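Supplementary notes for students who missed Thursday's class. We covered one full example, reproduced here. Read the sequence, then the structure, then the short commentary at the end.
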Amino acid sequence: MKKTIVAILLMLTLLWVLAPVCFAEEAAAAATGKSSNVLYYAMAALGCGVGIGLGAIGSGIGQGIATSKACEGIARNPGTTGKITTTLIIGLAMIESLTIYALVVVLIILFVNPFGKLLQ
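Structure (token representation):
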């Protein structure tokens, strides 16, 4: 619990330190008459990091639990090794696909410019 609180405080401190830099870049761009998306990209990068982190943690926990239970099942009944292994591999592929979906969404958010021609 203590490590979680420290990690959250570290992220908030980092956001607090870097936010003025983004706002200063926006103000400088507004003063010159050009528009800048620095704040959007900063928040998108932060959100993408959190999103893929949660996706990876969730699938890692799920895969660990699934593998643990499969090992327990094989240890209790070695005769069903083939069926358990087949089911385990299919289940792990489904769990991994959720992480890949999270990665695709994160990459779309990171590399798509929502303002497009509006700011050029």
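Commentary. The helical segments are 2-32, 38-76, 81-111. The radius of gyration is 22 Å. If anything here is unclear, bring it to office hours.
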